[in-house]
């Protein structure tokens, strides 16, 4: 049996993904400082080109600030539909070639190629797959290969844009040692600041600190951080077809045709599982609606959508699907909503749709829901008539079956 330490893991990352798609759509934008995000003083930067980054611009920065740093930058609104389609195109190429892969976000993938060296070089095979992706999608993509996911991701980050690197087995710790602690995944500004205050600047120093001391400083995260600093990561590549879907359904106490009540239920249920998406740092690419009529006939309809976790976008799609599906004008016994085709991601994915106020509103809403419970803050339209719901409405998490 091959131990986890002897694995061969490749990490693919589509370089500056949103910007690359925009440049592909309009080649005259190549080499220019580009900002993808909301227009106007209240907009936010969702993505920026490498040319724009040289001016100190980064994602989640207010657009007003970014334009002060680079007044001649070109601002694009963003096209989530195009980005989602390109992501799915690259996913399909990988799915048709890789023995085992994980789609960790809209633009990142892990491949487990353990054992392939028995038949042919896994590095050469991966390089050829990278070239195939670039040729067929027209997008730049960087590649890192190592014995685990964490080191392969760091390697990818080191060779961006459009590069490739392999860290050989046994060389993980030496590869990481000279890097600033910020280079390790999940070391944010706050953790880095704590380490800097204690004189820990690079990964080598971090790797030599006793675990009990790191635990005293950072709690249970101290152990995980020590493992990262020493190049240790045993997390598996999770097959994409095992991704979960999140759903909820409600069987009513009495069958109903009250459209105001049904629409209120759609709002309530959508808000509930959209909040769960954000809690799990997930985005959905497919919405399904289910209706069961009073005669027990059950019908469903689904829609593929640009990846999102935003209530207002999902509500629009849910209502649209319901209107298309509800055509019998019979009493309704049950309605259900399911979000599937899930990928890792967070609210930053929709920065180009929203103003700073909208983003702040979502953050405030989620803060309240985290503190008091999701049901304590809902839209005003979501006040349903008493007695129509069953108390035991169900929530399901089901395996997503790849089609």
TrEMBL record:
Substrates-to-products reaction catalysed: DNA(n) + a 2'-deoxyribonucleoside 5'-triphosphate = DNA(n+1) + diphosphate
What is its quaternary makeup?
A: Monomer.
Q: Where does Mg(2+) bind?
A: 13, 107
UniProt keywords, alphabetically: Cytoplasm, DNA damage, DNA repair, DNA replication, DNA-binding, DNA-directed DNA polymerase, Magnesium, Metal-binding, Mutator protein, Nucleotidyltransferase, Transferase
Q: Where in the cell is it found?
A: Cytoplasm
Origin species: Chitinophaga rupis
Q: By what name is this protein known?
A: DNA polymerase IV
Q: Where is this site: Substrate discrimination?
A: 18
């Amino acid at each position: 049996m091959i131990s986890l330490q002897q694995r061969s893991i490749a990490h693919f990352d589509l370089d500056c993904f949103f910007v690359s798609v925009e440049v592909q759509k309009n080649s005259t934008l190549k080499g220019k400082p580009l900002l993808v995000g909301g227009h106007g003083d209240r907009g936010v930067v969702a993505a920026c080109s490498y040319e724009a980054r040289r001016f100190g611009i980064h994602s989640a920065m207010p657009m007003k600030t970014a334009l002060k740093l680079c007044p001649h930058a070109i601002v694009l609104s963003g096209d989530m539909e195009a980005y989602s389609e390109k992501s799915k195109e690259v996913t399909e190429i990988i799915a048709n070639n890789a023995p085992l892969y994980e789609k960790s976000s809209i633009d990142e993938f892990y491949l487990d190629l353990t054992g392939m060296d028995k038949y042919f070089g896994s590095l050469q095979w991966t390089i050829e797959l990278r070239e195939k992706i670039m040729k067929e999608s027209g997008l730049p993509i960087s590649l890192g290969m190592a014995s685990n996911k964490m080191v392969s991701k760091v390697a990818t980050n080191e060779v961006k844009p459009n590069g490739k690197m392999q860290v050989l087995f046994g060389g993980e710790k030496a590869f990481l040692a000279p890097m600033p602690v910020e280079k390790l995944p999940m070391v944010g500004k706050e953790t880095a600041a704590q380490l800097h205050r204690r004189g820990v600047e690079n990964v080598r120093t971090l790797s030599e600190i006793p675990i009990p001391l790191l635990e005293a400083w950072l709690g249970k995260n101290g152990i995980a951080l020590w493992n990262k600093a020493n190049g240790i990561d045993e997390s598996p590549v999770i097959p994409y077809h095992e991704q979960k879907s999140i759903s909820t359904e409600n069987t009513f106490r009495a069958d109903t045709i009250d459209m105001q009540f049904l629409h209120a239920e759609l709002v309530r249920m959508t808000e509930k599982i959209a909040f769960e998406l954000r809690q799990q740092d997930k985005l959905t690419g497919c919405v399904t609606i289910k209706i069961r009529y009073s005669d027990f006939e059950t019908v469903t309809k689904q829609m593929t959508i640009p990846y999102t976790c935003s209530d207002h976008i999902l509500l629009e799609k849910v209502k649209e699907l319901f209107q298309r599906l509800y055509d019998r004008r019979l009493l309704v016994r049950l309605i259900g909503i399911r979000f599937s085709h899930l990928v890792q991601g967070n609210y930053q994915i929709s920065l180009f749709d929203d103003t700073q106020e909208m983003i702040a509103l979502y953050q405030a809403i989620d803060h309240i829901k985290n503190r008091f419970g999701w049901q304590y803050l809902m839209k005003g339209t979501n006040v349903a008539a008493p007695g129509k719901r069953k108390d035991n409405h169900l929530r399901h998490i089901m395996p997503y079956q790849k089609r």
